[in-house]
């Protein structure tokens, strides 16, 4: 049994959202750690990512005019990175290197097709002419002559494995419609050439392979939408120069009359493969989807529709799928269990095995497939009943005990019910004791609510959604459309709670929330419910006259702020009243919303391009509020604002620097921001001087502390110490 689990976004791919990935993704390779992946774009850049944190750890680029021509790989033995640009120029560097112009460089004598790096076999370099060298041998003499083995053939695909202690390289070539397979064992320096059996019109499009028991299993996806298997034994005694490889059909990519046009596929285990492609039904528009197939029983195990475009590339590492989806690189976790016929046809009785429909959006499945799924489930639950027609069985589904139905089946049954019944049933489903894959099930419930919002614009269960988010441990990746709908509805309270509770919100959504919070009027915010626990301790609120006052401090004073009754499209004329940081430039509701943004996680590299699109007036207002927080936090010795979820000094400083980086040129030219920038400069300079003076007496204070420890604490004395 195989299932797709939760998904999340690793990084953006567009010019404004990615780390040097604006030209598209060339390849994804494993990094030095199981949690690291190495991305190479179709241009000049390679980026190392930590998958669990969705954060870049390093980014390296070659000079303008140079192009990386094959995927960058990691040398697992030395933890160095290897790249080839302009076909022949080899570069090797470490994590600590920044400028690739200053790292090791070697110009080779032939064009490189690809470098494969094995954890215990070292890097292997495959040249476009079919020549193969280990990296160590190549570095001994970079200009050594490389033999041309394949003459007029063109390499289509390659892969490397370890057979015990022996590195093995396999690659396929094509010439005039004929396809050839080369297998080379490097330590034995043996090369075998094979020709793929070609008796029919279909041609092989994509290849993948794995090795087991000294036998290479080559899987080929052909143009007739079938996967074929070719067995290649490593022990060869024949002296024939070219042997014919026979193929056998492993899988036909069709289900319920629909055909899957695969663009990429990977092997998961001996019984499962994953295929990325377009599922096309007669008379319907094709839909891109990710599928997992059981090759042992030739069944489709699970699928996920991908509404946004993909590049057709699919990678798989550490039980995670990686593929481009729209303008982002998406990661989906999966799990494969021991294959059995019951699991393959959906009749597994093990309650711990999650139903496939728990992970699939029921709106994306055809009605026929849902009925078949229900029928197979019903045959287990209602095995004592007499056989019924399919139509009558569909009508009797609602009579089945709810505990015997999967989440996907329950949601389908509720698809056409009234709003009241729909919400009541979902509340009962959520209130049940925790079931297997409970979080994924809650994600499906939220998806069902959002889908109904999309089909019925007047329907928006605000309180229900708010209750789910507040009571369940969710993430953005489990319900990615939730915040988008909340932004559309201007539901700032729900957005605030999501920002506080979701750990994996993309920077684009964080920026969208910030823009909405800054643009919405104070008068509107006073009429809605907002959690004020992060501001109530340092902003005094008079609820009778709805005035906002600053907290009384030892050497400060109070002042009233005018309320805004329109959207904040203009900066107030009295900007000098708040430019010194003594007054809060926004009301408590807006301050609480902005604090939620300050608490959300982000990557500076990804957020900065979005912040540059923030309107200048909103940027000035946000900077004024950050300056106010900076002044308030600096009044206390511990530099911490009182209250729950109040911003820390580090968060305030980081956002202030980020905002200035994004808008410094504009702010310098804005008259409204001139005094604010001047006051900010003076305040920071005064703090720098203050801490500089503290550093000067640090040595004296340490000496005083040392002397106090040496003295007898029971003797009374008065001493005068002069600090010079």
Automatic annotation (TrEMBL):
Q: Which gene encodes it?
A: Nol11
Biological process terms from the Gene Ontology for this record are: maturation of SSU-rRNA
What does the UniProt entry say about where the protein is found?
Answer: Nucleus, Nucleolus
Instruction: Give every Nucleolar protein 11 N-terminal domain span.
Output: 1-335
Q: Which organism is it from?
A: Nycticryphes semicollaris
Ranges of residues in domain Nucleolar protein 11 C-terminal: 410-723
The protein's name? NOL11 protein
Query: What GO terms fall under cellular component here?
Result: nucleolus
Q: Which GO terms fall under molecular function for this chain's record?
A: RNA binding
Entries under PANTHER family matching the protein: NUCLEOLAR PROTEIN 11 (PTHR15633)
Q: Show the InterPro entries listed in the entry.
A: NOL11, Nol11_C, NOL11_N, WD40_repeat_dom_sf
Keywords, alphabetical: Activator, Nucleus, rRNA processing, Transcription, Transcription regulation
Instruction: Tell me yes or no: is Nucleotide-binding among this UniProt entry's keywords.
Output: no
Q: Which domain of life is it from?
A: Eukaryota
